[in-house]
């Protein structure tokens, strides 16, 4: 069922402009004619919420069973960038339902083109702020949340923009099932240390031991996202972390 049909079925759905602030750029180089066409044609088909040109959405609690039909294992990627990871994972795990979220228009256009060409039926996206998505995923029992190379905001005065705050980890915890995990990668050592410090203090998550092959499974240890490639090209060795929800 498309998000538009869902909206029609649920008269309580409200058109809302996000109150949550997004930092960073939303537009890059001009979209090609083909990308614009794909957004026009396919955004509503693959959108979790019904969305409008003015940036508003019909935000509502997400019913994953309704969205994905008979699938019962779900993963989310926050900030999918150009969508390489989400697309390849969805291709490789066709019995898992994937949600993705990204504010960068070029990335959304790129992923939409690929999921439509491959006729994937196990991916839905939110082309907006991940906080709005997480707020509507409480109790969703997700198996895994991926956060790969979140914006590092390196300047001291911008540290408060970093995504992994106590408040956002609480939201992540509520969206994950007990036993579910968050997979995090960053090439900024200070950010990795900050994440480890925050997670160490939590009694609801436990740090997992794992190999890089397990972290990237089933894509293979050689798979890299765009920002992972950039990190290696600049001789910054990424840190990979997995935290499991234990209560
Ligand atoms: C450094 S990039 C990493 C992209 C990709 N994961 C990769 O590894 O190549 C971080 C991404 O997170 C997205 N992002 C930042 N804040 C966001 C938010 N509040 N909601 C959704 N996406 C967000 C940015 O637009 C950007 O594409």
- Strand proportion, as a percent range, falls in 15-25%
Using the 3D structure, state the CATH architecture. 3-Layer(aba) Sandwich
CATH superfamily: Vaccinia Virus protein VP39
**How much helix is in the residues?**
25-40%
Structural domains: how many: 1
Average pLDDT across residues? 90
Topology order in helix (H) and strand (E) letters? HEHEHEHEHEHEHEHEHHE
Helix/strand/pairing class, anyone? alpha/beta
What distance lies between the first and last C-alpha atoms, to the nearest angstrom? 33 Å
How many strand segments? 9
Give the C-level CATH assignment. Alpha Beta
State the CATH topology: Rossmann fold
Number of continuous helical runs: 10
Small molecules in complex = S-adenosylmethionine
Please state the overall shape, judged from the principal axes of the Cα atoms: globular
Low-confidence stretches: 1-9
In short:
This protein has 247 residues and is α/β, with parallel strands linked by helices.
Question: Explain this structure to me?
Answer:
The chain is globular and about 45 Å long. With 247 residues, it is of the alpha/beta class. The chain is 36% helix and 20% strand. β3, α4 and β4 (97-101) form a beta-alpha-beta unit. Bound molecules: S-adenosylmethionine (SAM). S-adenosylmethionine (SAM) is lined by residues 22, 24, 79-81, 101-104, 107, 129-130, 148-151, 225-228.
């Amino acid at each position: 069922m498309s998000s538009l049909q869902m909206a029609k079925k649920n008269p309580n759905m409200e058109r809302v402009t996000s109150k949550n602030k997004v930092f960073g750029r939303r537009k890059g180089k001009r979209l090609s004619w083909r990308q614009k066409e794909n957004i026009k044609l396919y955004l509503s088909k693959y959108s979790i919420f019904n969305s409008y040109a003015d940036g508003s959405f019909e935000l509502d609690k997400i019913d994953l069973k309704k969205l994905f039909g008979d699938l019962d294992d779900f993963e989310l990627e926050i900030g999918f960038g150009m969508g390489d990871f989400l697309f390849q994972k969805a291709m490789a795990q066709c019995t898992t339902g994937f949600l993705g979220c990204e504010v960068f228009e070029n990335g959304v256009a790129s992923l939409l083109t690929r999921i439509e060409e491959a006729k994937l039926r196990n991916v839905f996206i939110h082309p907006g702020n991940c906080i709005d998505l997480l707020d509507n995923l409480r109790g969703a029992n997700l198996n895994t949340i991926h956060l790969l190379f979140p914006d590092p905001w390196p300047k001291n005065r911008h540290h408060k923009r970093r995504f992994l705050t106590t408040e956002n980890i609480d939201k992540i915890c509520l969206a994950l099932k007990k036993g579910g995990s968050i997979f995090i990668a960053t090439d900024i050592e200070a950010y990795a240390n900050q994440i480890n410090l925050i997670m160490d203090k939590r009694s609801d998550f436990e740090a997992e031991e794992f190999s890089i092959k397990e972290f990237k499974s089933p894509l293979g240890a050689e798979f890299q996202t765009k920002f992972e490639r950039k990190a290696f090209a600049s001789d910054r060795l990424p840190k990979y972390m997995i935290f499991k929800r234990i209560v």
